[in-house]
Design brief:
Elements lengths: L15 H11 L4 E4 L6 H10 L1 E4 L3 H15 L3 E5 L3 H5 L1 H10 L3 E7 L18 H7 L3 E4 L6 H13 L6 E6 H6 L21 H12 L4 E5 L7 H11 L2 E4 L14 E3 L5 H9 L2 E5 L18 E6 L13 E4 L2 H11 L9 H19 L3 H11 L6 E3 L3 H7 L11 E2 L9 H11 L5 E6 H6 L2 H9 L3 E7 L4 H9 L14 H7 L4 E4 L5 H10 L4 E6 L24
Parallel strand pairs: 1-2, 1-3, 3-4, 4-6, 5-6, 7-8, 7-10, 8-9, 10-11, 11-12, 13-14, 13-15, 15-16, 16-18, 17-18
Helix pairs in contact: 1-2, 1-7, 3-5, 3-16, 9-12, 10-12, 14-21, 16-18
Bound molecules: thiamine diphosphate and magnesium ion.
Thiamine diphosphate binds next to helix 17 and helix 19.
Length: about 550
């Protein structure tokens, strides 16, 4: 079943869409994701004509795909939505982009300029759209004059790219989209993204003094350490220090490095390593609740914290020395000042031992999942993106045990919202067509945006969607059970995924028992196109240990 696309010729007159194209070109952005509407038609038309427009089925998916595109390419992702409900639909995914600090430019329509705020019931008119957009983004602005569109877009991109990064929304009244013309714009040139402030020499000297005295140092990486991977690796090996990471700090140093303990800080062995350490060097991390046993994990008192955001210093764990600045710049300066390793004999081996133990223990615990995890790693190229939805296989092992080798391949919803992984997979597959992408999703999460299977089929992305089917919201089931709560709201009527895949013209495999996943994955990846593998979680053998999320439920004695 092939579906052909008809391309129309360029319209007689250029529109604001051509200005958007100019801005995108200036920043090396090749694709936009979105849903067409009377409120963004000129934008979609020009992007389709001059660059690539990827049709998705929901505005949240457009933002998720743009977000993943940005994470994978290291550039900016663009999402185009309609005004009103379309812009509102984008909100949940914009919140994810905000949480993750993603470089997303969200351009949405607005009713014609003269009707804004008139409350006359103009189609798609909503009160306070700009206020809503402001609340869900790093910044939001409106095009108020046709000749000012390029400046507004450039300013938006500048805000996105100014550290700490984040998504920006621009609303553009429909009439002004048509009236805007290239060549008539004020200040249309690319603006300068301000460089991160140079770190203070005093702070670096103080940090180096403390670090030089460390006998048992440990490094903790968050997503803010991206760009400093080579330096961190050098320092870790010079020092013999183990590297713990948050989920988003994963693979900044490739996870097959023998000093990478990884996203295992909250395990007993990870906690023990932290307990034994005398100095912690943290770089660009939030110390989020999920990664610190809701802030109860004991961290070394001596703490050098590096972050580009001054507000992060000491926010969760007191910093003995805070260094504000770009991670790579700060690490370069620290490497200069820390020429020799004087750490305790055997300390590096201690980190290696923890690395081994946490992996062995989890591999045993996850039973039949271990084979799936191993097959994924064995069969996927190192450059493949693994886009993970919020499902047990992600939380339990995909976010930790499944080795990743570069930050760009580590795509997951940092804010924990389900239903975003599939569209992230679409964005990743578009960004990296030369290697297969894999999506890990639960039956619940994938059902949030089933329409995005059609988007994936439409773009023909080389992407294998792996749906782990336990007929419901398994993680909440486990939570209810572990806490003596009633089993409500968790058992779902689940689609026939074979029939669904057939309707999507996607090759399909159902696996479950031992030995069944590997061959299915091999065949799926060999197709070079979109495929669907359903894993019957109930057939996994040996039965995996249960996973319950690391959230605090008040004990009866805590209740007033
Ligand atoms: C947007 C959003 N709504 C609700 C939740 C709560 N939630 C977390 S995991 C989950 C279940 C996901 O089910 P599924 O994808 O089938 O994965 P499973 O837990 O069964 O492995 C739900 C409902 C959430 N995280 N995000
Ligand atoms: Mg499920």
């Amino acid at each position: 079943m092939t579906q052909t696309r008809e391309r129309t010729t360029a319209p007689q007159t250029a529109t604001g869409g051509d200005i958007l194209v100019e801005v995108m070109r200036r920043h090396g952005i090749t694709h936009a994701f979105g849903v067409i509407s009377i409120h963004n038609l000129p934008l979609v038309e020009a992007v389709s004509r001059e660059l690539t427009f990827v049709e998705v089925r929901h505005e949240a998916a457009a933002v998720n795909a743009a977000d993943a595109f940005a994470r994978v390419t290291g550039g900016v992702g663009v999402a185009l939505t309609s005004t009103g409900t379309g812009a509102g639909n984008a909100a949940g995914a914009m919140l994810e982009a905000l949480t993750a600090g993603s470089r997303v430019l969200h351009v949405t329509g607005q009713v014609e300029a003269e009707w804004i705020g008139s409350n006359r019931g103009v189609i798609h008119e909503v009160p306070a759209q700009l206020e809503m957009l402001t609340a869900i983004s790093k910044g939001a602005s409106r095009v108020t004059a046709a000749t000012d569109s390029a400046r507004v877009l450039e300013e938006a991109v500048t805000t996105i790219l100014t550290a700490p990064h984040g998504p920006v929304s621009v609303e553009w009244p429909t009439d002004l989209q048509y009236l805007a013309r290239p060549g008539t714009q004020v200040e249309a040139d690319a603006l300068t993204v301000p460089a991160a402030v140079d770190p203070s020499v005093d702070e670096i000297d103080a940090a180096a003094r403390l670090l030089a005295a460390a006998r048992r140092p440990v490094i903790w990486l968050g997503g803010g350490a991206a760009g400093a991977g080579a330096q961190v690796r050098q320092l870790a090996h010079r020092w013999g220090a183990g590297i713990l990471t948050s989920n988003s700090g994963r693979a900044i140093v490739p996870e097959d490095d023998d000093l990478v303990v990884g996203n295992f800080a909250s395990t007993p062995q990870g906690a023990a390593l932290l307990d034994e350490a005398d100095v912690l060097l943290s770089i660009g991390t939030h110390f989020r609740s999920n990664e610190t046993r809701t802030y109860s994990l004991r961290l070394p008192q001596q703490h050098v914290q590096v972050d580009v955001d001054p507000a992060a210093i000491g926010r969760v764990h007191p910093a003995t020395v805070g260094v504000r600045g770009d991670a790579a710049t700060v690490l370069d300066a620290l490497l200069e000042r820390l020429p020799d390793a004087r750490t305790e004999q055997g300390w590096a081996d201690r980190a290696r031992e923890v690395r081994r133990e946490v992996r062995d223990q989890l591999t045993t615990y996850i039973g039949g999942y271990a084979e799936i995890c191993r097959e994924l790693r064995d069969q996927l190229p190192r450059e493949s993106v693994v886009a993970r939805d919020v499902t047990i296989p992600s939380s339990q092992w995909g976010n930790r045990l499944l080795e990743l080798y570069s930050r760009e391949t580590n795509v997951f919803p940092l804010g924990g919202g389900i239903g975003q992984g599939l569209a992230m997979g679409v964005g990743a597959a578009v960004a990296r067509p030369e290697v297969p992408t894999v999506v890990i999703a639960g039956d619940g999460g994938v059902s949030v945006h089933l329409g995005e299977l059609a988007s994936l089929r439409g773009v023909g992305g080389h992407c294998c969607v792996i749906v782990f089917n336990d007929s419901g919201y398994g993680v909440l089931r486990n939570m209810q059970q572990a806490n003596g709560l009633g089993r409500e709201g968790v058992d779902l009527w689940t689609p026939d995924f074979a029939a669904l895949a057939q309707s999507m013209d996607m090759p399909y495999w159902r696996t479950g028992g031992p030995g069944s996943f590997g061959p299915a994955l091999r065949e799926a990846l060999a197709t070079g196109g979109p495929t669907l593998i359903e894993v019957d979680v109930t057939a996994l053998d040996p039965v995996p240990g249960a996973f319950t999320p690391p959230v605090h439920i008040p004990e009866p004695e805590e209740r007033p």
